[in-house]
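A quick aside before the break. I want you to see a complete sequence-to-structure record at least once, exactly as it would be stored in a machine-readable document. Don't worry about memorizing anything.
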Amino acid sequence: MDDMLKEFVVEALDLATNVEEHLLSLERRPDDSDTLNALFRSFHTIKGGAGFMNLPAIVSACHLTENLFDALRTGKVPVTPAAIEAGLQASGFVGDQLKLLANGATPDSLAAMPASLEALVTQAIEGGAAAPAAPAPAPAPVAAPAPAAASTTTADGLDWEALYRAVVPAGTLPDAPAPVAAPAAAAPAAA
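That is the input. The structure line, written in tokens, reads:
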């Protein structure tokens, strides 16, 4: 590896390590503008050096992630767990690429940015631009079973209504429903 590339890799790895620390700090303090600015600058700096070194996968990942942090720091997108995860994934990808270079890989042997990473970061960027989702409707209250009108002593000798009333808190029982007449027997169908 030539000296310029080696120097870039060392500096970029240091920045990538700082990015992870900043992201974890941002998770605790999402409104910290200094941290948001530092994240933006880190990706911007790595992107610039990667462009100069002709490392297109790193440039693509940094450019897209730089867009995410620009949107976060300007308030266009809220700091969410999804945005932090996207930043961590992008930082991990860039760090892995830099480690490969540090271990002797040639720039042209590096893989392109995975489509899944691009989708994750893009979704984090667009997630903030989308209209807020309507709140989920509250679940319908479940009606307590109505107690029977008369004693419900069954063949097993238990009074089920008395048992029910014993376990349901007082004042929450509905009034006993009016007795319902048994349905009339259906007339046999004519053949």
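Two observations worth writing down. The chain has six helices and no strands. Confidence is low (pLDDT under 50) at residues 129-149. We'll return to this after the break.
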